[in-house]
Design a protein that fits this description.
The structure is a homodimer of 254-residue chains.
Chain A lengths: L7 E2 L3 H4 L6 H10 L3 E2 L2 E2 L9 H21 L4 E3 L11 H22 L3 E3 L16 H12 L5 E6 H4 L5 H10 L3 E6 L23 H10 L6 E3 L12 H14 L2
Parallel strand pairs in A: 1-2, 3-4, 4-5, 5-6, 6-7, 7-8
Helix pairs in contact in A: 3-4, 7-8
Protein name (chains A, B): Sugar phosphate isomerase/epimerase
Keywords (chains A, B): Isomerase
Pfam family, one (chains A, B): AP_endonuc_2
Chain lengths: 254, 254
């Protein structure tokens, strides 16, 4: 990342937690390269089929928030989780998410790592996240952290580009000083797989320039993060080539 | 449908317009069987890359509304269309949709066929419908038909089950007397294809009983329509078997 000229990186937990990596050494290496850690991705899913599972999920996240602090991450990205296996009770899952984030807020405060709640596209409501709009994420922030700076939101264009309330919600997020991260990629018109067929910026239908304008107007001055899950295309290409294209597209279409 | 004991049917335009069918004869046949025509599916997409294309789309819909009247349909279902090919301008497409529905409202009034705007799941925002929530559809109704009964909404659980504002929006629709149709199927937790992998009621995660309760509390007294796009499963089975399972699930899980 540093060699390609990027200023930051957002490590994923599975890259850190696989047992082979020493997190302190990784943190030193990232610092030595002069890279900002824009965020640490991502939370364990909160909802559980039992109270015990839910409590275990909260504890997993507490440990991850500690690691986020070690890495010097600007936020801990919360992908909150979907319905527990076998459940159809969306309000209950959403209530568990609010309870869980409430329980984690003290840890986040203690370690100085704000939690960035990332609304996921409604196509993932069953299995990945029951928080599906920016307005819903902001409501959780206000419920648990009114006027505070422990909770915020991560805005990803892939998840939110379609939202009729997007502009209004971005402005609300700006007023409340809740915009902690901004992720880009693109939504391909012919999406073959909602999870792993994201597009490179400029190849899809998201109006990246309009969204970036709204985000900056809302006061966001952080980095723009590229996140392209693309099993059949970008993940198969030479990483240096992909980084060069990302760099170019960030300048020309984002 | 009649033989299987169902009380209504919603024909699709491609079944009527393929040139082999005489629509008056079809209408007589449906009436003779005692079937209610719950709706006529569905509008041509409204947004066009050019003004000419847009105008042509509106005219296609005018003709279809006339056919809906011939069939005795209780409503004409509006799937409004996505972004025109090559466009990233979601606000412009949404404005065209409002313009187009406004242009069709007089035709709908003249033929006595209300237009049921169907919000589609956000996964279809690019290619099928830029109206993606019930609140957004209701807003269009109020904008174009304040206090009237020419415009309304079609609520499909597949498209709306995830919406954090669903209960509130259903109540709003009831107060405004806008609920014209109610479609059921189910959202499978492991959806392999967002278009053609819908589940049979009870096989997925949508809380059909809760949504039905909200719909009836909002005053909806119409039929419950089953709509299951399922290329790999239900469409391949014996139709009589599928109808029998639908009938049973409508009684037990909807």
């Amino acid at each position: 990342m540093a060699r390609a000229g990027f200023g930051g990186i957002a490590p994923w937990r599975h890259e850190i937690e696989d047992g082979k990596a020493d997190i302190d050494a990784l943190a030193r290496q990232i610092r030595a390269l002069g890279l900002t850690v824009t965020g640490y991705c991502r939370s364990a899913y909160l909802p559980g089929a039992t109270r015990e599972q839910f409590a275990a999920n909260v504890e997993t996240n507490r440990a991850a928030i500690r690691d986020a602090a070690t890495l010097g991450a600007q936020c801990f990205v919360m992908v909150v989780g979907g319905l527990p296996e076998g459940s159809r009770d969306l309000p209950a899952a959403r209530a568990q998410v609010i309870d869980g984030i409430g329980m984690l807020a003290d840890t986040a405060r203690a370690f100085g790592v704000p939690l960035a709640i990332e609304p996921l596209h409604p196509v993932y409501a069953a299995d990945r996240a029951v928080v599906n709009t920016l307005a819903q994420a902001l409501q959780i922030c206000e419920t648990l952290d009114a006027g505070g700076d422990t909770l915020g939101v991560a805005l990803d264009v892939y998840h939110c580009w379609w939202d009729p309330a997007l502009d209004a919600s971005i402005a609300d997020a700006g007023r409340a000083r809740r915009l902690l991260a901004y992720h880009v990629c693109d939504w391909l018109r012919q999406t073959r797989d909602p999870l792993l067929d994201r597009g490179m910026m400029g190849d899809g239908v998201a109006d990246l320039r309009a969204i970036r304008t709204a985000v900056e107007r809302a006061g966001y001055a952080g980095m723009v993060e590229v996140e392209i899950f693309s099993a059949q295309n970008w993940w198969r290409r030479d990483p240096d080539e992909v980084l060069a294209i990302c760099a170019e597209r960030l300048q020309t279409v984002c």
